[in-house]
Design brief:
The protein is an alpha/beta fold and 283 residues long. 34% of the residues lie in helices and 22% in strands. The chain has a single domain (3-281), classed as Aldolase class I (TIM Barrel), CATH 3.20.20.70. Helix 1 crosses helix 8. The longest helix has 18 residues, at 31-48. It starts with a strand and ends with a helix.
Length: 283
């Protein structure tokens, strides 16, 4: 097994280290909301003694409908993330979708994330790996819904061939199971850790019901919000080194993936439980 270190922030993840919390909004809606959510999560994680990274997307490119809200875009979104980073003094995580986005994203984001649908895009993996390593960040790679856990070795090999000193972590986010459904194989977390990298759990996206939101007659993705804590607890018990969670002050009014995100008011209770589980498992 292995651990990675974010030297600029004094954060480590993996063997022998505490549970890392990567949490925030699904997509940037406004600077004020990002600061509200980030400030509350920073306070909670500081109280619990958990390393914290703020996350939010500047663009949700993989949408069910062309009319779905996608976010402020690269330029304005990175400006918001930079301001959150400055005002709250926290590392930030965001995802990218195109090769040309690698350098500007890695210049701002401490964790550069490759979305699950795009992990087999070699040119994107290479560009993201090189830019992330150049700026001293972590590459956070989500396992595709169609990949076996052990097949992630090919993604790691591509990234490290491009940037041998890269710090990389894998993220479990569920596998396609029939139509409009995902399941999480908890044994897969251990299989991915055998590849020598830390592993996180995206409990938010793991409860999605792709293309099955009854509110829009399938025009957007549904979700089972009540399942997020279940999957998060189980994954940490199975060995996850970090948790990836999305919150909102009013989830039912969130502009993207509301059915899968949690109310901010429940963050402290959940994170306290996850810390206790991680401590017990790693005692």
């Amino acid at each position: 097994m292995a651990a990675i270190h974010l030297k600029s922030r004094g954060i480590s993840m993996g063997d022998g280290h505490g549970l890392v919390v990567i949490a925030g909004l699904n997509v940037l809606e406004s600077l004020d909301l990002a600061l509200t959510v980030g400030r509350e999560l920073k306070a909670i994680t500081a109280k619990l003694g958990l390393p914290y990274v703020f996350k939010a997307s500047f663009d949700k490119a993989n949408r069910s409908s062309i009319t779905s809200y996608r976010g402020p875009g690269l330029k304005d979104g990175l400006a918001i993330l930079a301001e959150v980073k400055r005002q709250l003094d926290v590392p930030v995580c965001t995802d990218l979708h195109e090769i040309d986005q690698a350098e500007p994203v890695a210049a701002i984001a401490d964790l550069v994330q490759i979305p699950a649908f795009l992990v087999r895009q070699t040119d994107l993996v290479v560009a993201a790996a090189r830019a992330t390593a150049r700026h001293g960040g972590w590459l956070h790679v989500k396992k595709a819904q169609f990949l076996a856990p052990w097949d992630c070795k090919n993604i790691i090999a591509k990234a490290r061939e491009a940037a041998p000193d890269l710090s990389i972590a894998l993220c479990e986010r569920g596998s396609s199971f029939g139509y409009n459904n995902l399941v999480v194989d908890m044994l897969g977390i251990g299989e991915m850790k055998k590849l020598g990298v830390p592993v996180t759990i995206d409990a938010t996206h793991a409860v999605q019901l792709p293309g099955a939101d009854p509110r829009t007659s399938g025009g957007s993705t549904g979700g089972r919000r009540e399942g997020v804590p279940v999957i998060a607890r189980a994954a940490v018990a199975a060995g996850a080194d970090g948790v990836f969670l999305e919150f909102h002050t009013d989830p039912d009014k969130a502009l993207c993936d509301g059915p899968s995100c949690l109310p901010l008011s429940g963050a402290e209770s959940l994170l306290a439980t996850l810390k206790a589980v991680h401590t017990a498992v790693n005692a």
